[in-house]
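Worked problem 6 (solution included).
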Amino acid sequence: MKLLLHICCAPCTIYPLGVLKKEGHDLCGLYYNPNIHPYLEYKKRLDTLKAFAEEEGLTLIPQKDYSMENFLRNVVFREEDRCSYCYYERLNYASHIAKRGKFDAFTTTLLYSKYQKHEMIMAIGNSVAKKRGIPFYYQDFREGWSDGVRISKEMGMYRQPYCGCIYSEKERFYKKRK
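Solution. The predicted structure is:
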C-alpha cells in the first residue's frame, strides 16, 4: 500500500516506520505540526526528523512554513479542548496531501505515543478520511513504546520534553494549586 505517514517527531517515528516497512508498505513521511512552540523547538524536531529520514531513506514532505499563529487563534478560549483541534488540523491536512498525492491511505505516528489521546486520534482520523474519501490506516503502535524510546536514546536523537504546544509546555512545570 502507498501510505502517507504523518510524523510528529523523529523518536515517535522509529517504531511505526519499522513496523510499516516490515509489512511492505511504500511510505512517504509528512511533517506538519503547526502546534509546536516555540520556533526553536519546532526547528529541533524538524532537523532531527530530516536527519533520521535521510538515514532511513524515507521521503519526507516538510511543512512549508511555521504557522503557529493559526493554531493559537483556533484554541484560544478552548484550551481544555485543544487536543481535538490539534489532531483534527494535522490529520485533515494529512488526508488532503494523501488524496492529492494519490496515496492509498494515511496514518500518523501519534498512534505510537502512550501520552496521546488514542481513541480521539482514531475517531478524528476516520472522520476526516470519510470526508476526504481516502482511508485512514489505523494501527496501535503503543506496544513498541519502550523499544522506540530505547532506540532513540541509543541513536542520540533529540527527544522533546513535551507534546509541542505552548499549553503543554506550561503543564510541564506549572501545577495548579488546589
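Discussion: The chain has one domain: 2-173.
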